Amino acid sequence: MGFESPIFAARLEALQSLRPPPRLTLSRWIESNLRLPDDVSALPGDVRLWQFQREIADAMSDPTIERVTLVKSVRVGLSTLLTATVGSFAANEPSPILLLLPTEADCRDYTVSDLEPIFAATPALAGLLSDDSSEGGRNTLLSRRFPGGSLKIVAAKSPRNLRRHNVRVLLIDEADAMEPGAEGSPVLLAERRTLSFANRKIIMGSTPTLEATSNVLRSYAQSDQRVFEVPCPECGTFTEILWSHIEWQPDQPETAAFRCPICMEMISEKFKPAMIDGGRWRATRPEIVGHAGFRINALVSPHANAAWGKLATEFLAAKGSPDTLQTFVNTILAQGWKEAADELEEGELQARAEPWGLDAIPPEVLAVTAGVDVQDDRLEITFIGWSRDAALILGHVVIWGSVADDSTWAELDDLLKTSWPHPGGGTLRLDSAIIDSGDGEWTASVYSFCRPRFARKIMAGKGVAGTRPPVTASQAKGVRLFLVGVDGLKSQILTRLSRGRSIRFSADLETAWYEQLASERRVVRYVRGQPVRRFERKPGMRAEALDCVVYAFAARHLVTANMDRREEELSTPAALPPVLSPVIRSKWMSR
């Protein structure tokens, strides 16, 4: 039977139909298969990757690369790659997959808002994930099975959940929001679940936060450290666009353009799309094999909201405060935040004192909050006035007396009812106060005082360590308690004091108050091999003033007043008491 016989040709055709389809890189698979629904993306439909996304995607599917680290900004469209990677492995290389996210809420939001809609909209993935869990047949939102594999979505704040899983593919998103706990770093715990797979894949991505403790920056430093470079339209030289290359005319951020560091020509925004299309990744440490690292910022994003002029406008709005500037540096420039100082010098702070206080409120103050520290024999209260862009420490009051006595709390109540005349003619009153209830011995007394004054926004607070919001309501039943993220607030206060004058001081504050404000220093300690930022008390120092300021800062987040309206109100003189008719003394009484 010859090779040209009809029977041989039919057999060959039948055998060829059994041959698996050619292996596609992840970028090609995404553009061939992935569909985005309109409730997930502003550009629904077929996916067309940008130039800088392709090499990142291909590294995620490259069998010769074990680890991929992505230092990312916002507005570069990389969140979709996370779901695309899950989909590609589920459809083409069924494996046990683990996705690690910071919190349980993040896990649920990702599943409902991204994973399920994208799988449903993509024909190659539709119906692939069932609702059945491998754990006793229970249906769970965060545990799915598919033919040949499974997907578990786990919160880093629940590291015990990691013990039960052995996985081949590990995806870690927003790694810098994950802190070591009692069992160690959740990132390292998750990585250990991949040890039984010789062909494991570990993908970590995050917007960086603090340079000293960043998980993603530490991982990127161990990679081949790729940077995305674009060609200059004038000289053709490839350059990574950095913020230092963006310039604009004074007071005209909309004129922002890129100055080429080689030829020094100014390149306008209209050339950006062509520059991105012609861009390329360059490994700065090509000797590293098996670990691809990518760093990309929003300056190369084609998004309309990432235009250089808009980013310049955002920068000008953010630069006035270290808090907002850090957000810009982290989320737009994809850089870790370098903290300006680790401790304060009380003498330098006291030298900034200004001639105003509780008896002479500055005109820029629009709101007042207080922080109260509870000691056995006294209550200490710091009042802070808030302008639109600064915190003004107006004064500090100590109420002496046992906190077991009702008279001590009555004196505090009278103090918190104080009103102050405003230079504009109106009257200022306390907007909110938080009283420290974390002592334990006097917790019940604080609750009893705050409960009937809830409508006045006088709240019981308890400091909690770690990465926490400034203030959140406790979920404990029967207790109106607010949890205060003291580490974050102390960092904010330290940064603001060391980087500018957005915290100002009354000349009425005593030297001892400044010593207490500067009573702690910021240090980096290693917990189970991972760097953790902490605040430690300087030996022999008291910290009542610092605690009061932290709680007064937290109380600011409970103030919801409209500042434009408040400014109008304070510019209106308070109503004067009615003038009574004068009493005329009769001459008859003088007889």
- Report the sheet with the most strands, covering strand number, pairing sense and barrel closure: 10 strands, mixed
Which structural class should the secondary elements be placed in? alpha/beta
Low-confidence stretches: 132-139, 575-591
Content of β-strand: 15-25%
Describe it for me?
By secondary structure, the chain is of the alpha/beta class. It folds into three domains: 26-225 and 284-296, Rossmann fold, CATH 3.40.50.300; 231-279 and 302-338, no CATH class; 346-570, Nucleotidyltransferase, domain 5. The chain is 29% helix and 24% strand. The protein is built from 17 helices and 27 strands. The strands form six sheets. Strands 3, 4, 5, 6, 7, 8, 9, 10, 14 and 15 form a ten-stranded mixed sheet that branches. Helix 9 runs antiparallel to helix 10 (322-331), helix 14 (486-499) crosses helix 16 and helix 15 packs across helix 16. The protein is globular. Residues 132-139 and 575-591 have low confidence and may be disordered. InterPro entries: GpA_ATPase, GpA_endonuclease, P-loop_NTPase, Phage_lambda_GpA-like. One of its GO terms (molecular function) is ATP hydrolysis activity. It comes from Sphingobium chlorophenolicum. Pfam families: GpA_ATPase (PF05876), GpA_nuclease (PF20454). Residues 291-562 form the Terminase large subunit GpA endonuclease domain.
